[in-house]
Amino acid sequence: MKTAEIRQKFLTYFESHGHSIQQSAPLVPNNDNTLLFVNAGMVPFKDFFTGAAKKPFDRAVSCQRCVRAGGKHNDLDNVGYTARHHTFFEMLGNFSFGDYFKSEAIRFCWDFLTVELGLPKEKLWVSVFEDDDEAADIWVNEIGFPINRISRCGAKIIFGKWVIQVLVDHAVRFFMIMETILKEAPQERQKRMETDSLRYGI
To answer: What ranges make up the beta strands (E) of the chain?
Structure first.
């Protein structure tokens, strides 16, 4: 499946569930002097979340171009060490402004990944914030997801603590077990895990 197809499927799926498709904002924010570049999909919606601006819709979906090459969210030092850090990328995101929260967000994402994209359920892992028992309970009791494939992560792993607690507390993150990782020799896998542990404090 091509990147463009995944992007369009994501936008179309959430539009069919009442989300307003928003175009990617400029990389240089025109109304936010706290950032040099847009570094996350939620940045264009900050004023809606904080109440500084009147929200024109209750649900939104976007594919936001982002740069992380300096400042608080600088990924330059991690590029090449992991498969998940980049300096320029597109971030797909669905957003609720006082409309729905964790349960609905989790159901939307699970349905999109397993039904729309057809990803194999047995190769998916989920992360929740380390103290978020509510989200873990939804995964186990409403979705039926195996508790042994739910990883509790702290603020260092799930980006900014302020973002997690105030803005996108319902964020859902998935990880695919890649075949290359599964085929690693045990000693290679252990070495990679120890390196990540030292680098990210996990």
So the answer is: 20-22, 59-67, 88-96, 124-129, 150-153, 173-176
41 and 124 Cβ atoms separated by less than 8 Å: no
Give the gyration radius of the chain's Cα atoms.
Answer: 17
Q: At 22, list the tokens.
A: 């928003």
Contact present, 174 and 153 (Cβ < 8 Å): no
- The string of pLDDT tens digits covering residues 26-45 is 999 888 888 888 888 889 99
- SS3 (DSSP) at 62: strand
**Diameter of the chain measured on Cα atoms:** 54
What six digits make up the tokens of 70? 């300096």
- Where do the DSSP E strands lie in 97-196? 124-129, 150-153, 173-176
Q: Is the pTM of this model over 0.85?
A: no
